[in-house]
Write a structure and sequence with these properties.
Blueprint: H1 23-31, H2 40-48, E1 67-71, E2 86-90, H3 91-109
Antiparallel strand pairs: 1-2
Amino acid sequence: MKNRPYRIHRKRQPHKTGDFQSINEALKELKKPGPKGSDYRERSLKIHGLICAKCGREFDQKTSHLLTVHHKDGNHLNNPSDGSNWENLCVYCHDDEHTRELLGKYLSEGKE
C-alpha cells in the first residue's frame, strides 16, 4: 500500500435521530415575525410612499415588490422610527447604488 500524504480517512458518524426538524417546523420558524425593527420595509413604504427616490418611478400595490429599502448609511440595523436612514429605491436603482459603491472602492484601491 502506497503512502498517501494529506489524505485522512474518517468514518462518518451516524446521524442522531431528532437532530433535524421537519420541513413544516422549519417553515413555521421562518414565518415567525423577526426582532423589533425588522418590519422597516412596510414602515418605509408608508412614510416615503410607493415611489423610487432616485428615478421617480411610481408603483402601486401590485408592483410594490419592486421597491426596496436602501439604508443611507449602509447599516441595515440602523432603523430609526422616523425613517431618516431609509429611502425607497426600485430594484434597478438599488442595484445601481450598490454597484457604484463597489466600483468606487475598486477604482480608489488602485490609486493608493
